[in-house]
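Researcher: Batch entry, complex prediction.
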Amino acid sequence: MEPGRRGLMPAFPCGKMEEGKARWPDGVFAHLEMLEARAYEAAVKQEETEQREEKLARLKARVQELRRQRDELRAKVDLQQKGLGKAGVVSDAAQPSARAVLEWKIKSVKAMLQVFYLTGISGKLTKQGVCFCISTAYEGTYLDSYYLDLLTKPEVRIHRHSVPTFIPLEQIAKKHLETDIRRFLSVLADHLNAYVGRRHQADQLQEHFSDQIEGTLQRNSLCNLLVFNYNLSSRSKTFPFNARLLYGDLCCSLPTEVSVSCTPEAPASLAETAAAHSALFRRVALHRAFRSFSSAAERADVAP
Amino acid sequence: MDETVAEYIRRTVLKIPRDEIKTMLQKWGFLSEMQLQTVNFHQLKENISQDVVQLCEENSADIKQAAVLDIIYNHIYPNKRMWSVYQMNKTGEEIEFFDFTDFKKKFKRRLRSALKNVTINFREYEDNAIWIRIAWGTPYTKPNQYKTSYVVYHSQTPYVFLSASVLRSNLPLLCQALVVASNYHDIREVELRSHSLNSLKDIVFKRYSQNFQTYCPRPLSERKVAPESADVRIIQENRNEKERIQRVNREVFGDGPQPKLEFAQYKLETMFKSDPKMDVMYKKEPFRCLVKFSSPHLLESLKSLAPVGMADAPLSPLLTCIPHKARNYFKIREKKGFFPESFVSP
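Model: Structure tokens for the complex:
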């Protein structure tokens, strides 16, 4: 109903039936029809306004989008002009700008920090002390990094760390931390590097030579005792050799005691090989020793 | 095959979700692949369990094999049990050569010397974790396979994870056997408990992400960067404060996922501090009170308190020290001395 209209009487005023008949000579239903038609027109108009508003909103969004693109392109053009400007003016190229010098300095400092990180022991001063990072490696492969957050006041002590629990950190700290921090870091780094070295050897063995080993390697958290049955080639189904490697020195990644034995019924030649392997494992990393077996076996195959 | 064994196997199979039954039986390795092919794993679990028991009957399973199946189930679903952490210590400095066979022998001998009616099973996993399952009996009754304790021990570490059964009277026996078998001197319970075994391991083995300050931080691509608002006319008034909160939060909690704990409990025995004129407590006694925070994932919810604005950053150290101190039960007492501040007891 148009709000502007005043004096619209309700269709059936109570007690005024006669008046109604006088007011709407065509009848109440005709009046109703007219009202209906008006309502319909109003609804159509409203729909039109809504559609117009929608279209307006769409166009506004499009304008926004185009403005944004224009800004982007403007920025690109500016940048290009600046670049051209730099190349265009030859006389300034000889003097390096302050910005370039700063960038070079930052790059060289970053490279220096990277070098420290690669050496294995690096540190950063913190508000309360210093945070050391021991990055371990074995034979050229970088392995895990371990962190130590130290406090320096009132005395040097460890605040937090990410060293595994089976590394005897408390013992090493008790011995060296307060007296000689270099020694402490060096001993700890030795322990950690040796541990990851032993672990790397065992992992490599398990990964690349699993068909020459019976089942899985029996080891422990520190990887300082390995026991396994193995054979020389991947083709045979029996595992005549039993190896037991004991790593007595926790700072060393080679075993201190090796015993390789065969089953008692084995022929004498195997017993000799076992003794040879015993000596080999004490000198050479485990996975490389196994690699030498397979290459020796290949050579034996190739030889007539 | 013993009826009790058959029933036990049937009930264990019923616990396993239907889709996992076949894989778990394959891991168990007691039934051959051919035998497993004869079972229809799409029927009702009741019927699957009956079929499995039938096959076990053919292979004459005994309690040892049934126990192995139970260990496998608990290893895959450890979060159904409540785990507590114990710490052992020793005074010697000898290098430990942990030998698994030696450990098993010593443990069994020690436990059986005190109590003959126990079922003990071991299983070693690749992350150097040793799972021990113990079913307890009494001097006069056979072991009750439904009342089991589980022990998870990583060699050459001083920590043991225990999921004790209802029979707490056997706990001293179990602790003693562990100490003897692993060559330590004594053992005590650490105030750390949770349903998530891996989270407990992460906390005590320091495998969770701690934020250490280094010059070689992880590349930015790993950190989530919030998208900037598209319209430059919108200015974030609190941007500095938001960034400060993010930075402080990251320093405290680190970038990675937090270990999953369900609650932290603080037992307060501090003096009630009030206006002396009000004189609420006429007896100068500590005000005893227990505050417990619980959540499906407590540490993640603490981490998100400051960014959503429910708490000030940095959070109280009493809350943030939980993974660092490796405990979620605290006792807070008054500090005796000139400065009456509260402190956390060890």
